[in-house]
Design brief:
Blueprint lengths: L23 H10 L2 E4 L7 E4 L2 H9 L6 H4 L8 H7 L10 H10 L4 H21 L8 H16 L3 H15 L19
Antiparallel strand pairs: 1-2
Length: 192
């Protein structure tokens, strides 16, 4: 089946492109006609869209030429002070630092370790879904971050931070209508 999308129609920056889901037809056109595609940006310097698996693997393995550290993995241009902060995130590191961090993090995500997490993550997820007034409006990514961060704080016994993460997520997700969906938490918020 031939796509109705033309190369000139490809716009990976416009949010409307994703309203109906992943624009598979656009990516098919890119892979077929311009697998390494320069994408202009109205308010930025532009970027290369690399869409074929083999090319993505080659880019991923050559951090000298394709650095995550230099400009970060973000598409938007960042001021230097923001870049300095962004470079502290593992996603924006190059080897050998990225490799060191990845080896540390990977230990916590073996099948055995993830199996141990399953019950607690399930409980956190149920708590968020059951107690959030506007759960249907929450973006899945925000919820995943809330669950992940809450779990990490729980795991390392930072229960006050776990609770505050839940409160902050709830207030952001409901656009300021603060609703504490962690009322059932086993670690109630107490003043110090």
């Amino acid at each position: 089946m031939q796509s109705n999308v033309k190369l000139r129609d490809v716009d990976l920056v416009n949010r409307d492109t994703y309203v109906k889901g992943v624009p598979h037809e656009m990516f098919e056109v890119l892979r077929r006609e311009a697998p390494v595609f320069w994408h202009d940006e109205e308010d930025g310097r532009g970027f290369w869209a690399v869409t074929r698996y083999e090319d993505v693997v080659a880019v991923n393995r050559d951090n000298e030429l394709y650095s995550s550290h230099r400009g970060t993995a973000l598409i938007m241009d960042q001021p230097e002070d923001t870049l300095a902060q962004q470079r502290l995130m593992m996603l924006n590191m190059d080897p050998p630092m990225h490799t060191r961090y990845r080896l540390l993090v990977n230990k916590g995500f073996t099948p055995r370790m993830v199996g141990k997490l399953e019950e607690r993550i399930g409980a956190l997820t149920n708590d968020i879904v059951d107690n959030h007034a506007a759960f249907a409006a929450i973006e899945a990514a925000g919820t995943a971050v809330s669950i992940g961060v809450s779990y990490l704080f729980h795991r390392y016994h930072h229960h006050r931070l776990e609770r505050w993460t839940s409160i902050v997520h709830a207030s952001l997700a409901t656009s300021g209508a603060v609703r504490n969906y962690c009322l059932k938490t086993e670690y109630p918020l107490t003043a110090r």
